[in-house]
Design a protein that fits this description.
By secondary structure, the protein is an alpha/beta fold. The protein contains 9 helices and 8 strands. The protein is globular and about 50 Å long.
Length: 300
């Protein structure tokens, strides 16, 4: 007699996932998702801000594996060629070329049709409040959510110019609270650094201009200066990113204290510069390792 035949299958533990803002280190959240699912947990709700929205939205669309494969095959030059610098606008990068490249991999679904419930968090600066995007074109929501002020131009959605959700909700826990999931897992992008700060004046790598076609080098040299690749000074972008990081880290601490999740996965804040999206392979490993440690400590 088969004693297993009449038994209902064991239900998977349902998880609501809050994914934080953090520039390129947000790609570590790909590894965190891999670790969560490797333990048999079912992610049923995702909220994300900035790069957390990017990773979360693509996972909700069921295309995270393909997206990760493309990212891990990209070089620094491949990524930089996707940037479209703009002049005389409230930002350095337009973002259309980058979004078009990602749309080719992910498609262009509506949020309300995704197999996993998803909320992208952006900010309406005129009204000075969060905006939760839960329907409409996925890429409108993602482009708005990662529109870092001063770097990307704001993105219009429903007649409002929206910017990076990390300004007010770097760890969008509240946006998951309508879920009936058994467990809330938050991925905090402001964990304790792994190494001392980089000395002032230490170069961040070869210039952007050196990796672009000759016809775009003048504009690229300007972008180089904006992204802080001048070894003799910190640069606009690094100054801006450190200021935003400081603000987001403090807000995230308050969010965690006021509305603590069941499990917190902490990504060290110094694993990369905020624009180093070409380091996806290493960042995914960092995220997977951090998630495994947090899940082990929680007994999951």
């Amino acid at each position: 007699m088969d004693l297993q035949a009449g038994r209902a299958p064991t239900a998977r533990r349902q998880v609501a996932l809050a994914l934080g803002a953090g520039g390129a280190r947000g790609l570590a959240q790909i590894g965190a998702i891999q670790a969560i699912e490797a333990r048999g947990m079912e992610i049923v709700t995702i909220s994300g801000a900035s790069s957390g929205a990017l990773v979360g939205g693509i996972h909700a669309a069921g295309r995270l594996h393909e997206f990760a494969e493309v990212l891990q095959g990209m070089s620094r030059g491949d990524f930089l060629r996707l940037l479209d610098p703009v002049l005389a606008r409230p930002g350095v990068i337009g973002g259309s070329r980058l979004v078009d490249a990602m749309r080719e991999v992910v498609g262009d679904p509506l949020i309300e049709t995704l197999p996993i419930a998803f909320t992208a968090v952006a900010v309406d600066m005129e009204r000075q409040r969060e905006v939760w995007l839960r329907d409409g074109p996925l890429w409108d929501a993602l482009r708005a959510s990662f529109a870092i002020p001063g770097l990307f131009t704001p993105h219009p959605v429903h007649g409002r110019d929206l910017v990076d959700g990390g300004l007010l909700a770097p760890l969008p826990i509240t946006a998951t609270r309508l879920s009936q999931a058994h467990c809330l897992i938050a991925v905090d992008m402001h964990g304790w650094p792994r190494r001392p700060p980089r000395p002032h004046g230490d170069a961040s790598g070869p210039s952007i201009a050196s990796e672009l076609p000759a016809g775009r080098r003048r504009l690229a040299r300007w972008l180089d200066r904006r992204l802080g690749n001048d070894p003799d000074e910190m640069g606009f972008a690094e100054t801006m990113s450190r200021a935003i990081d400081t603000m987001q880290a403090q807000i995230a601490r308050v969010q965690l204290a006021l509305d603590p999740p069941d499990i917190v996965i902490r990504i060290p804040r110094d694993v990369c510069q905020f624009y180093e999206f070409w380091r996806a392979r290493d960042l995914i490993v960092v995220g997977r390792d951090a998630a495994d440690r947090a899940l082990d400590e929680a007994g999951c």
